[in-house]
Amino acid sequence: MKNLLVIEDDVMFREAIRREFEDRNYAVTASATLKELRALHSIQPNFAIVDLKLKGESGLDAVAHIKKEYPDCQTIVLTGYGSIATAVQAVKLGASNYISKPASIDDIEKALTGVYTPAEPVNPHNLYRHEREYIEKVIQDFDGNISMAAKALGIHRQSLQRKLRKFIS
C-alpha cells in the first residue's frame, strides 16, 4: 500500500484530500501543523502533500523536516499563494513538485508520482491579482485588523483602505 502524509491546516480541505486518496488505496496520515508532524514517529510515507502556508508556520519547514526524516518520500507543495521564489526554495529543500491551488485530485496524484506537467495558464497571474491576494492574506492573518495589517505591509492605514476600495470597484 502507498503511504501518504498530508500537512494541511484547513480541516475541510485536509479531510477531503484524505477521503479522496483513501478511495485510491492510499494509507493517509494527516497533520495540521509542523509540531504535529514532528510528533509522528511510526509512519513511513512514500508521498507527502504539504501546504505552503500553515497557521503560524511555513510549509517549507515541513518540507525540510520530511526530507531529513524520510529521504525517499516524494513531496509536493500545494499552495494558493505561489511564487517563483517559494517554488525554487521548496525544490531546494527537497520538494519534487509545486502546485498552485485549485488543483484536481488527479493532478495532485500525478505530481506525487512524477507524471504531472502543468498546463499553461489561460490567464496568467498579474501584479494586480497578486497584490490583492497578498493583501487579503495579510488582513486575514491579523483577523481583519486593518491597522495591524497596514503596519505589517509597511504602508499607512489610509493607503491600505484606498487599495481595498479600489479592489471592490
List the helices and strands and how they pair.
Elements: E1 2-7, H1 11-23, E2 26-31, H2 34-39, E3 47-51, E4 53-54, E5 57-58, H3 59-69, E6 74-79, H4 84-93, E7 97-100, H5 105-113, H6 127-141, H7 146-153, H8 157-168
Parallel strand pairs: 1-2, 1-3, 3-6, 6-7
Antiparallel strand pairs: 4-5
Helix pairs in contact: 3-4, 6-7, 7-8
Structure explained in plain terms:
- With 169 residues, this protein is an alpha/beta fold.
- It folds into 2 domains: 112 residues, Response regulator (Rossmann fold, 3-Layer(aba) Sandwich), CATH 3.40.50.2300; 42 residues, Arc Repressor Mutant, subunit A (Orthogonal Bundle), CATH 1.10.10.
- Helices cover 50% and strands 18% of the residues.
- The chain contains 8 helices and 7 strands.
- It has a 5-stranded parallel β-sheet, with helices on both faces. A two-stranded antiparallel sheet has the order 4-5.
- A hairpin with a 2-residue loop joins strand 4 and strand 5.
- Helix 6 packs across helix 7.
- The mean pLDDT is 84.
